[in-house]
Model the fold of this input.
Amino acid sequence: MKGGAGCGYHSGSVTERRANASVSAYPHPIIAREGWPFVIASLAAAVVVWAIAGPGWSVPLWLLAAFVIQFFRDPPRQAPAQANAVLAPADGRIVKVEKTRDPYTERDTLLISVFMNVFNVHSNRSPVDGTVERVEYSRGKFVNADLDKASTENERNAMVMRLDGERITVVQVAGLIARRILCYVKAGDRLARGQRYGFIRFGSRVDLYLPLTARPRVAVGDRVAATSTILAEL
Done:
């Protein structure tokens, strides 16, 4: 399944769409808005078990609540002032820096991939100032997002952006545990560097396709932080 008008949201057998969802801007609460139902539910479960069965029985649920809170944390980030910088769209570890074909714009590009584990911040931010040209959502598998084939086989959501005559593609890729990609932009939307545009739940990856003229500033194995880290220079 593919769509060019908006972003896809998938949870196993359920597909959701939010046609009028707005792009969120800072300042944010420290906890991502996507996480509040999970945070409240986990805390409520811990409190109920504590009240009924005692503190000892509630410990696993308190640990679960702590994990949920750390997973959905969403701190604001300061973007570097460098005008030609391409910023990290997500927190995580660089797993790929190589020349490859961008399947969404059909051209040769520089691919930089960021793998997010369950302990990274999973809020996704725009790497550049630009206009969304189109958004394309594809159904797929849920293999480990650290594998090469995840880029083409997993459930994913691609956003093609145009800036100063160039085009870049940012792809949210679901992972082994991730079952929902959230994206809040559509064609024609204008994004600023570091602006929040989506979220992926529970382990995933973001692929960034850049022009071949881009100069990478990171290498495989580097740890990066969304908005704060410069991945490449245009």
